[in-house]
Amino acid sequence: MSTPPHPGGNGGFPGLPWPPDPSRPLPSPGDAHDPPDLPPAPPLQGEPVPPREGYERSTRQRVLYLPVVAGGDLLGYLWAAEANANACGFLRNLAFFERSLNASSLWSRRLDQAYDEGLPAQDAVRRWRGAPEDPEGGAVPPDAQEQWAPGLNELGASLNPDAPRSPGPLVQDGLYPDGTPADRSRGWGPLVGAPLPGYPEETAGPVVHLPVVLGGDLVGYVWAAETGDAAGYLRRVPAGRTGEIAMGLWKARLSDAFEAGVHAVQAIRAFRGLPEDHLSGTVPADAVEQYAPALAELRRLAEQ
């Protein structure tokens, strides 16, 4: 297997440091690791529960946004897609990490309530302008002016310029990236079966892995070969269909890293702390790297 080339910059995969941060050295291919005695992952309670219905939390369209402020501090933005009446959310200001995390819980509940009431996304955002300030979640000032951003990624870059950028789900606003409708009754795009470019998904050597969690449940693992030339996602078998569905976004992120020439171990490290996707989950910000002497050992762990 050959290691993908490393271009001079981050190759269109923003948020990944390259060269790697010397304070977090990559494992050396020759290093020996004693695999830790890992306890089995905690079992899921009953059958995995499908996520509740709600607004889509991603879009490729222009977005309308309003500031959420608490005590004069900007905790984040409420946003809504320009033409997709089913896409809106709360974008956190990571400079106020804990406070914006608490605020995101409040705004998620409020948006879920608006969805249940059948409100279009922009109305769900606008309804909160001038409402009393919540002690934890803040408020949209009554004189806040509606603003527009070219897209959600651009809005996120202006608010959190040093945070990794996420491409989001493969299907957004009902469309694939090339504009093909996900609903085939609306038409067909080019019928191609080309897989996403990516790292090889087999390796004979040791692997580094991190947990993927959705709604507090362990649904899978992202892994990378210590040599950096292979990587992938493994669903946790007891997570069933939920773990399988989560695969799509992680494969897309790994594909982006591969095309940027990023060392695979550095790529999965950059996944820590990305916002939780409602289908694919997240790698917790405090997730600890684990090692397995071979990919087969990680597959056995994923079966527990």
Automatic annotation (TrEMBL):
Disordered, as annotated region:
1-57, 153-189
Query: Pro residues: which segments have biased composition?
Result: 16-28, 37-51
This chain belongs to the protein called: Uncharacterized protein
